[in-house]
Amino acid sequence: KSDVASINWGLKIRNFSELFLVSGYGATDAEGRVQFPGDAVAQTEFILGRIQSLIESAGYSKDNIIRFETTVTQNVPPSQFSGIFAATSAFHSDVIVKPTAATFRVVQALGNPDMLVELEFWLAQ
Fold first, then answer.
1. Whole-prediction pTM value?
2. Three-state DSSP class for residue 25
3. Angle between helices 40-57 and 81-91 (to 10 degrees)
4. Residues of 31-59 as b/e, b for ≥16 C-beta within 10 angstroms?
5. Residue closest to 114 by CA, chosen among 50, 36, 59
6. What pLDDT is stored for residue 45 in this prediction?
7. Which residues contact 23 (CB under 8 A, 6 or more apart)?
8. How far apart are CA 91 and CA 22, in angstroms?
């Protein structure tokens, strides 16, 4: 952890040998079908429920996450934002050094009209 005067959280990473970037991870099943259409919180929870096995299969753990980004579509009502934040906070609750999570973006649409949420992760070791 590194305190940075202009923001409330900074993370200094040094002496790492590789980065693993997971981009655009959505709430789709093995056949590519979007799960929980219309429910951004459930989509977020679905993604988080699957991401741990993905990163572990690549030789990483949640402790290696240094940054994550959340993208939602404009169809997600702001009333669901707190549920999305709660799901991501719960996912990181047992991690001692939390990743920086500075980006929460709202976009017009994602690649599939039923997809409301995508999460991106940066990991380092």
1. 0.84
2. strand
3. 20
4. eeebbbeebbbbbbbbbbeebeeebeeee
5. 36
6. 97
7. 120
8. 16
